[in-house]
Design brief:
heterotetramer; A: alpha/beta; seven-stranded mixed sheet; six-stranded mixed sheet; about 20% strand; B: alpha/beta; two-stranded antiparallel sheet; about 30% helix; about 15% strand; binds thiamine diphosphate; binds iron/sulfur cluster; binds magnesium ion
Chain lengths: ~550, ~280, ~550, ~280
């Protein structure tokens, strides 16, 4: 018998190598042609504590995490106690014989006997692959690729342990439903949200990244750093976030597309710099990887509560665009688009992600790099009018942009109110012209807005509105509800500013009940929609405990679980 | 050839008699002596009276935020190392709001010249104490007198082994121009702290006060000797040394990025073929 | 003949002593029993440039500035050229004979002949007092009080110059309508917005102020500094704004009511600290004196564009209150209330003022200090429950507050999510309890909201909605419109957050046309009202050129000038 | 009497073998030796592994933002000078994000004890370079090696005439406890930079590395001599000096406020009569 929607959860302490195990399994499953979705949960510490790495796998597309667990791989006793209850009927607990509950719902593994402690995760790998019925050659190859390069001896040892584990498990009288094999595995990438953002930025020609480390944004910078040599990139760890944003503005002013990854608290420190980018009309992409606040809050968990922070960041008034990818693919494409829009409109642009999406590895169809539309860096090759005026008044509000030192023309940028030539002024008539020039750019940004994505039944009884990383869970919840014969639609915003009511107001008005699903306590998108359209959503499903919104959570909150 | 006229003459918003005028002249002279043309130089500043200087200079300019000139300049230099960069701002800007960037710039040894108009006061905001204000100085904001020890940028820079540390005085334009020229010639971070009278708000450290105390270091002075430099750095009061107080040889920061060996980032295009290979690693 | 609504405008360079002249005149006028309103306009420089000091004076209450000028006191030629056009019929220009236009609309003063250049302003004082028909003894006394203490010789010289000027002017054949005398002058104070904020804060027991200088907020700190000795206050100039807000939080945590004055750009740097105050539940009053942005913008001008910045400042979600005084009196009372509300709800509280109000000296009826209601610092004398839990869960969300070092009980505050005892936690159930506890405080804040002030005709044809410093101009515009037999109402918000729809929605719905008047380009209050009520105002009158909204401006924009 | 038990024993979130454990012990010992009871002390920290220390101490605690512990502590001290204040945080917190506050605290000479857990790395964020990381150190964020000169907090503090500058090592608990006790006894700002192995991320500056190099200054060492101190401050590499490197006598910052002579602000009530007089001046 087979089961085509399996969630396995690996639990243990930080430092027990459960992430390595999880990544190996993820890679193997993707190679084998399965669709997967990873959910990582960890604590703000380096060793100890309780961390989990969950993989949901199926031959069908997996779009959301699931709460119930089919295979619980407990690397310590605590994991059994904490997660036993989540194990579904027919589920299995894989635990050390020392920790396991002695029922037939539990496979007790003699780890000590099969390997030294620090390699227990290799044993677990073997056991799991047998239970799921994975191609053992593939498992061995993946394991070898992982260590092979670094350390041959290590690789050899791993191979032996794996074999022992496979043999041992093969002889166990366990009944766990295997995964249906995939006949012709299509090639897919294993990629998480932050990797996709880094790749999307690279594809758009980003060549400068300044950052100050902050979870869950750091890995964006690290992914860029890893490719700096090959892609001709400078990545600099700044002394603080204020330096990071100002460095990026300096690099961008000099002509290099720049990115600044951070999280809420670090971003708060950058808001004066955001205002400077707005005033000097310097393009810059700021990625805000959300985590629960206020202040330090829950630094390793997830939340969607910085929409308003980003929307109003920086003193004074100037246009901006804010993207909120809902999938790993959208992370790539929207990071790319962000760079494009920042350059086109010489403005700060924001990408809102969160810990859940940042760390969620998924099976992703390779991007068609060969057919990417080229991105216009928005830099004029010569001055349209002489003397060159950096802030020439134009109908679009966008002024032709030259670069300092790249021609005989002088480029002057100023954070004070300025004349067309960039020099500061206190002429209040010019002030008005400049405010209006900057504002006109909003029209252009509007014209490029990614419309919210509508799925499901036309004029539904229930419309679920959401944004960012909650997309998949809302989609799955909608599907479930549809089975109970409710007409359900979903509306996902992958761009939360500017909003263009014509693109979505019709959906809201034609729906029976409109429910906004968000990972925050105020319902930030809901109130923004009301501000922009006057339409008040009927109900809100909110989550703010630090965990991602799941399909089950949505159904429970709707009273339809 | 580059001439002083290339850098223009502008009306300023400074008070008559302000030391800023002389510093502006010295900057022009230093640029001319360095044979740097206006389009080759980028002058970055923060906010303050000193920070207005770039607006009175015919050059590429980025006038940013109070205290944040150094990071902007650092980013610009990393994007385009061919740019000759001068950062010009006040003592409050660089040692107050921007103190953390000052430390970082020294540690990086990024190749730019920082000219601090040090009038020992917050001028534009009408005379509060700055980090370099003398202990006991009385202002509206410090009616009981400044209680903090004045910040000695020279001493801190030398202690941190900064690669070029100099002090000038707006009252000695030629000498200052010489320091600026040498600072521009120096590969790495060059700090030039310039004593500047503020006729409107600093009634203690006046032109006469500085004139009486400032002396230029002799030619025998060995700026490469750290111990001597450290001694000289803390000299203040009756005698205030002017000149290059300390210097050493150290690769400038940009050099540490192998990608920059291939030339400036600006202008380099994106190798999508390489990106494709990178993406294959995810498969 | 007399004129009972005179606007005099003194213009000249910074450093010509025009502010001294203006302040002397203001003091004299208030002593003489007149109502006045000062509007100062200056440039971001110390010497030179063009500055003005305008005083509108009347025996009736003056609530707003006026654009047309009756008496133009030109301290230099530029002033004549720049402001000639503003001079009303029957108006007079007082200028140096060297600068003046030679018409009978101009009184040419032989300054050189009457005094040395640097004392020209004393001559002007004499001339103006004759023209307005002010009590010469009062003029002499005020002048003497001003210099007397400092410098007797100086005072003597001034007296002589004044006399010469008075004599000279007495002999001039000018016809300028004098002010009607005030029979029984009632005692009033001459006070501007920032002075009133400082005094209000002192009255509420503020004992700590940390700040980093920034126009137009600096004078709040300087006013507090001037009274530090007498009121037992510590005022500290911080190394930067981040230090300022964190110092205030530290002082407040230790038990001292604290205030932090700043402006937009400086405030942007404080937003992470705001979030810390929200999370640690530390009371702090932050005054944001608005000026035009973005970035450095127009540092010495006025604007009302930081409402949204302040409303969403700080990452994560937590309650706050935002006040926006419309008059000098409201600056006092709302600064006082802010301190109270911050203490009651252990939250950051904001006061939004702007350059116009900050520098606008007015005749103010003395505050009744003897009958002030005492303010409860909100500090428990002993732990209600032991061991003491700083973040005890309560129905109101407010936990009893003890101070570190003031008892044997230990006080633990944390910017991470925390347990009731203040120590950090990653327990996600506790997280929810804490988020909800913090949010419950919003109910209490709601109950204390200052309702918007409605004036004028019930269910009017036209309702003018405004906030903050634009109050007076909108009131006066409304009055003018009412004369043209329109039924007009005005609704002024002196608290812009939280909004309690029941307090004002009725006014909006019962009005014919609703127009929102604001000093920004987006109509920030208008869109906030729509977000909170769904009600979209019909029209917006916006100003963003750096000048205060005037009655004339409102009428022009309404096409009713 | 105060005993070590008064400060409690807690489970920590630190890695087994981390130097933080010893520092925590030394802090407790230093407090006990100073006969300071838990309710008399306020421990302020920022964010990082080191910054978690106050949670493992039975005392008044304010755990604030990354890099901002010093300003919070400064505000608390000015509000209530009777509080004994310790600031405990990492090298990144104090010399990186908080660099500007570090300079200001030295200049103010505010009476508190700053204990920097200096593991020369960003621990909590998993091993990026910190300001004190050695040149050339390779991390995921610095794959070409750290290019900036390491920040030498001792040298900067001595150059700035800080009134108490010391270095300890987590491997010498008693010596460190002694420094902390003296730091607490010192009137003014006391900097104690503590070398601390990070077993998870700093594979260069290990316990053995420090052990091999650290030596304690002899009793003959004259910490009041600035020149010697400056020399000692820059000693690093084969030999690393431990102990009080420099100290001087200077009034602590709180003393400069005459209002604080009347006692702590906290508890003082508001004199509305005085306010009334002040308001009369506006009439
Ligand atoms: C973030 C921020 N804080 C404060 C200010 C206000 N401000 C403008 S200039 C200045 C100080 C100027 O002092 P300094 O840098 O020494 O320059 P100077 O005017 O003396 O030449 C301050 C505090 C600002 N513009 N931005
Ligand atoms: C404003 C802000 N920026 C960044 C972070 C992320 N962060 C947390 S701890 C840390 C560095 C910790 O290094 P250190 O201060 O040396 O402490 P350690 O963990 O090494 O003890 C960083 C960058 C943060 N919490 N807040
Ligand atoms: S205020 Fe001082 S520094 Fe500024 S221009 Fe005037 S004299 Fe110069
Ligand atoms: S990461 Fe390093 S500093 Fe942090 S607890 Fe572990 S060993 Fe200690
Ligand atoms: Mg200055
Ligand atoms: Mg560290």
């Amino acid at each position: 018998m087979e089961k085509n929607d399996v969630t396995l959860l690996i639990g243990g302490e930080a430092g027990q190598g459960l992430v390595t195990l999880g990544q190996l399994l993820a890679k193997i499953l993707v190679h084998a042609g399965y669709s997967i979705l990873v959910t990582q949960s960890y604590q703000s510490r380096i060793r100890g504590g309780h961390n989990t790495f969950a993989i949901r796998v199926s031959t069908e597309a997996v779009v959301a995490p699931r709460e119930s667990v089919d295979l619980l791989i407990a690397m310590n006793e605590e994991t059994v106690t904490l997660h036993e209850a989540e194990v579904a009927d027919g589920g299995l607990i894989v635990a050390d014989e020392a920790h396991g509950t002695d029922t037939d719902g539990c496979l007790q593994v003699p780890y000590q006997q099969l390997a030294e402690t620090r390699l227990a995760n290799v044993v677990a790998l073997g056991v799991v692959s047998v239970l799921l019925g994975l191609d053992q050659a593939l498992v061995a190859r993946t394991l070898n690729d992982f260590f092979g390069k670094k350390d041959h001896e290590m690789a050899e040892k791993n191979r032996q342990i794996l074999t022992t584990a496979l043999d041992w498990c093969g002889q166990q009288p366990v009944t766990f439903e295997k995964l249906p094999p995939v006949a012709k595995p299509i090639q897919r990438m294993l990629m998480n949200g932050n990797e996709a953002i880094a790749m999307g930025a690279l594809s758009a020609g980003v060549k400068f990244c300044s950052f100050y480390p902050m979870t869950p944004a750091t890995s964006i910078a690290l992914n860029l750093t890893a490719q700096a040599g090959r892609m001709g990139l400078v990545v600099e760890q700044a002394e603080d976030e204020i330096a990071a944003i100002n460095m990026a503005i300096g690099a961008s002013f000099a002509g290099v597309p720049s990115i600044v990854p951070t999280s809420g608290g670090g971003f708060a420190l950058m808001t004066e710099g955001v205002s400077l980018a707005g005033m000097t009309e310097t393009p810059v992409l700021i990625v805000v990887a959300q985590r629960p606040g206020p202040a330090t809050g829950l630094p390793t968990r997830t939340e969607q509560a910085d929409l308003e922070l980003v929307l109003y960041a920086g003193h004074g008034e100037f246009p901006r665009a804010i993207y909120s990818p809902g999938t790993v693919e959208e992370c790539f494409w929207l990071a790319r688009k962000s760079v494009d829009v920042a350059a086109k409109f010489q403005s700060p642009v924001f990408l809102l992600t969160d810990q859940f999406l940042a760390d969620s590895s998924r099976a992703v169809t390779p991007f068609d790099i060969d057919n990417l539309e080229p991105i216009d860096p928005g830099i004029a090759t010569d001055a349209s009018s002489l003397p060159y005026n950096r802030y020439a008044i134009t109908p679009s509000g966008v002024s032709p942009r030259l670069l300092p030192g790249m021609s005989k023309h002088l480029v002057v940028a100023d954070g004070d109110e300025h004349l067309v030539d960039g020099h500061l002024t206190e002429d209040l008539k010019v002030r008005n012209l400049m405010v209006e020039k900057r504002l006109r750019k909003e029209q252009g940004i509007m014209a490029e807005v990614v419309p919210p994505e509508f799925q499901g039944d036309e004029s539904p009884d229930l419309l679920l509105v959401t944004w960012g990383s909650s997309k998949g869970s809302v989609m799955e919840a909608a599907a479930k509800l549809r089975n109970d014969s409710t007409r359900v639609g979903i509306l996902h915003f992958s761009q939360v500013w500017p909003l263009v009511p014509d693109q979505f107001l019709g959906y809201l008005e034609s729906a029976g009940e409109v429910v906004c699903v968000e990972g925050n306590v105020y319902g930030q998108l809901a109130r923004l929609i009301r501000r922009e359209t006057g339409f008040g959503v009927h109900r809100r499903v909110l989550r703010y405990d630090g965990l991602p919104i799941t399909p089950e959570y949505v159904l429970r909150e709707l009273g339809r679980a | 050839m580059v001439s002083i006229e290339d850098y223009g003459q502008y009306e300023t918003a400074w008070c008559p008699g302000c030391g800023n005028f002389s510093i502006l002249e010295a900057v022009k002279q230093g640029l001319v002596d360095s044979v740097i043309a206006p389009h080759e130089v980028l002058v970055v500043s923060g906010i303050g009276q000193a920070a207005k200087a770039p607006h009175y200079l015919n050059a590429n300019v980025f006038n940013g935020l109070h205290g944040r000139a150094l990071p902007v300049a650092t980013g610009a230099k990393l994007a385009n190392p061919d740019l000759r960069i001068i950062v010009e701002s006040g003592d409050g800007c660089n040692y107050g709001e921007g103190g953390n960037h000052f430390l970082a710039a020294i540690r990086r040894n990024i190749d730019l010249t920082l000219i601090v108009h040090n009038n020992q006061i917050y001028g534009l905001t009408k005379g509060q104490a700055s980090p370099t204000s003398e202990e006991g100085l009385i202002t509206k904001a410090q009616p009981e007198g400044v209680a903090s020890l004045p910040f000695n940028p020279i001493a801190v820079a030398v202690a941190m082994q900064a690669s070029f540390v100099a002090r000038g005085f707006s009252g000695k334009i030629d000498h200052l121009a010489g320091l600026i020229q040498q600072g521009l010639a120096h590969e790495g971070f060059a700090l030039i702290d310039v004593l500047q009278p503020c006729v409107s708000f600093n009634k203690v450290n006046t032109f006469a006060w500085y004139k009486k105390r400032c002396y230029t270091l002799s030619d025998e002075y060995d700026a490469t000797d750290w111990q001597t430099a450290m001694q000289t750095a803390v000299e203040w009061g009756d005698k205030i040394p002017l000149g290059i107080i300390y210097r050493n040889q150290r690769a400038s920061f940009e050099k540490s990025f192998s990608v920059l060996q291939r030339g400036p980032l600006v202008g380099q295009d994106t190798d999508l073929g390489e990106l494709k290979k990178i993406l294959e690693k995810f498969v």
